Amino acid sequence: MNNHDEHFDHRPVDVCIFMSYLLVVLGAFTLYAEKIMVYDEEKGIIFVEKDEVQAYKSKSSREKSGAPPAIPKPPEPANRKPSRRAPPAAPSKSSRKEDIHVNRSKDPPQLYFTSGLEYFKNQDFENALKNFMYADSVRPQPAYSLWVGKTLRRMGKYEQMMVTMNKIHNSYPESDVADDALFEIAFYHQTTGNYQKALDLYKKLAEQFPFGRSFSNNEEFREIAKEQRKSMRAEMITALNILGYSGDDLAAQYKAFQRDNNLPITGAGNQETIRAIKAAHSDFLQREADRAARQQQMKKHSLWGMIISGVLVINLLMILFQRTVIAGKNKQLASLSQLLHDLDSQAL
Question: How far apart are CA 88 and CA 71, in angstroms?
Answer without folding.
Answer: 8
